[in-house]
UniProtKB/TrEMBL annotation:
This is Glutamine--fructose-6-phosphate aminotransferase [isomerizing]. PROSITE patterns: SIS. GO terms for molecular function: carbohydrate derivative binding; glutamine-fructose-6-phosphate transaminase (isomerizing) activity. InterPro entries: GlmS/AgaS_SIS, GlmS/FrlB_SIS, SIS_dom, SIS_dom_sf. It comes from Candidatus Methanobinarius endosymbioticus. The keyword Transcription regulation does not apply. Residues 30-169 form the SIS domain. The gene is glmS_2.
Amino acid sequence: MEYKMYSEVFEQPDSIRKTFEMELVNMDKISAKLSEVNRIYLIGCGSSLSTAYTAKNALEMVTDLDIDVFTGYEFYYNKKLDNENSAVIFTSQSGETADTLAALRRANELGIHTITISNKKDSSMIKEAKYPIITRCGREEAILGTKTYVTQLSALYYILFSASDYEKSDELIKELMSIPTLMQKLIEETEEENKKLAYELKDEEIFYAMGSGPNFGLAYKLAMTMLMEGALKHSCPLYASEFRHGLIERAEKDVPIIILDSDYPSDEITQKAIDFCEKIKVKTLVFRMKDYSEINNLLSPFILVIPLEWFVFYLAHYNGKDPGSTRHIGKVRYK
């Protein structure tokens, strides 16, 4: 079993550590700039879009920041963009994603403050943004986006919460800095149980993924890039509160539904979905943050992503698939 994703899972903690070591002063300057703007746009595609959803939902739970999320071309073609004292943050693994790059050039034309978070220092997006942040992940080959995902998300949380009015921002930032150590422990401790879970569900062809608040972004990543791209399984993400508007009619005995629960206020509705699924004997896979860590639950996606990565890794493996390869995706990869 020589899949590149395996080693990249273990490289996540050091990728975060190195990024903070090399970029912290730069990120502090960017946070100061963000604290002066009236509106912030977050732009990404695939895994990068999922980090935007997570950051937006986390910040809107506890701050007054005005944040919008767009995919690249949705931003590019939008006619109602506010270019008066606004900033836009672009996230991209390669820094060459065509639609995100087009959106960056559009923002520069409009005179909006542009910030790029990318893993390639000589990429177009790093060169063309006014304020670049380079994640220090080294080369990433697996399509799922493991170390680049958590490092992008770390950078977003740092610059946005540092710029916010969240009363516990200093405490959250301190806990964010502890994530690499927690992550290293979880990588070692959660592999075997999720390997077994993957074996039990290897013959399933469709998975639903649900989460509330910041966990919706992780559910989006889980469905769109991890299960569909990595394990080649049909999947669909949704906010947990939307379970009763559609999915409830397809939730049947033995249908696998992955539910993320972090005890957010909105997870009151998540628990109702869990209760319903268990009552009718859905294959309910509940990943609860409290089972892994007691840090601020706004940081839940950093924690829950680790057992989910192992689950998807072995789900692909037991179906004879390389979880890091692609069939049709034409996105730019590192050479």
